[in-house]
Write a structure and sequence with these properties.
Layout (H helix, E strand, L loop, with lengths): L7 H6 L4 H12 L9 E5 L4 E7 L8 E6 L2 E6 L19 E6 L4 E9 L2 E8 L17 H19 L1
Antiparallel strand pairs: 1-2, 2-7, 3-4, 4-5, 6-7
């Protein structure tokens, strides 16, 4: 079942959320993907996250983590193939690529592989210029301030001449 959402009313009352609406539209279009390897996403702090992936059988040299702008790509490919005579093969060793869409200003702070679990730590670091700041309100009218600045400029030009 496919449902199309109309985001046009939200465009009228929100500014700068175009990327979010595009993500929502694209999420409904993507077909269901392979859910291997299994993974968890946990929030470990107010602006901290951790992805844990079960990658049994993969070594550090067979895994790759690439942080692109707003995207985290985790891939794995086994290099050595065991040519044993298997009666049952339940441990998947096929290559994989898992993509995670990241919000703005989310950075990878570390990764580790312990007991077949790959953990990737993420931190949202908002730049200082994007943090809320208080704007002081003057006591005079805005128009009179502009006129005063213009008068000061004219007086400075007359003195220079």
């Amino acid at each position: 079942m496919r449902t199309a959402f109309d985001f046009s009313p939200l465009y009228r009352s929100s500014i700068g959320f175009d990327r979010v609406f595009d993500l929502l539209e694209n999420a409904s279009r993507t077909p269901s993907v392979d859910n291997w390897p299994p993974y968890d996403i946990a929030r470990t702090g107010e602006d901290a996250y951790r992805i844990t992936m079960a990658v049994a059988g993969f070594g550090q040299e067979e895994l790759s983590i690439v942080h692109e702008p707003n995207m985290l790509v985790v891939s794995g490919e086994r290099t050595a193939e065991d040519n044993g005579d298997y009666l049952h093969r339940g441990i998947a060793g096929r290559p994989f690529e898992r993509r995670f869409e990241l919000a703005d200003h989310v950075k990878v702070t570390g990764a580790g592989l312990v007991n077949g679990l790959l953990t990737i730590d993420l931190q949202r670091e908002i730049p200082e210029e994007m943090k809320p700041r208080k704007i002081e309100i003057g006591s005079g009218k805005a128009g009179s301030r502009i006129e005063a600045k213009a008068a000061d400029k004219v007086a400075t030009e007359k003195q220079a001449a």
